[in-house]
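Trying the structure run again after the queue cleared.
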Amino acid sequence: MRRLILISMLGLACWRGPEVGDEQMQMLSPDGGRLMTFQELATEVFEPSCATSFCHKPDPPPAAPMSMEHAKVYAEIVDVASSQKPMLKRVAPGDPANSYVVIKMRASTAAAHGTTRMPLNKPEVAEELIQQVEAWILRGAPND
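Done. Tokens:
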């Protein structure tokens, strides 16, 4: 699994960049798949998986002190130290392997860091979506 992630990250690092279409620029991954913007990730990953649960709602409890609702999520996670593991950023731009949000999304990495997988008591986030989050972080976590 780590080898696959490393290969994916190396592929993105060597990638020439987005291709320009007739009407708009669209971000493409090295395999030709479309990369999601932050706004899409907020709508399709963070809000339904995190903000609609008890933990990261608009007025989060002290145990989960951040809101993952669409309007607040970027400021709450990008370049902000984790309250559980202060030596890690919730999202470390350019470094998905050391971004606590990604660590928490996978059961294997969460357990390795002595924490629980998120979302808690809900289905796991699809691996393809986690990889989209990693690709966004690797691009520098832009607010696009």
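Helices lie at 2-14, 38-51, 73-77, 100-105, 107-112, 127-138. Worth checking whether this holds up in the mutant runs.
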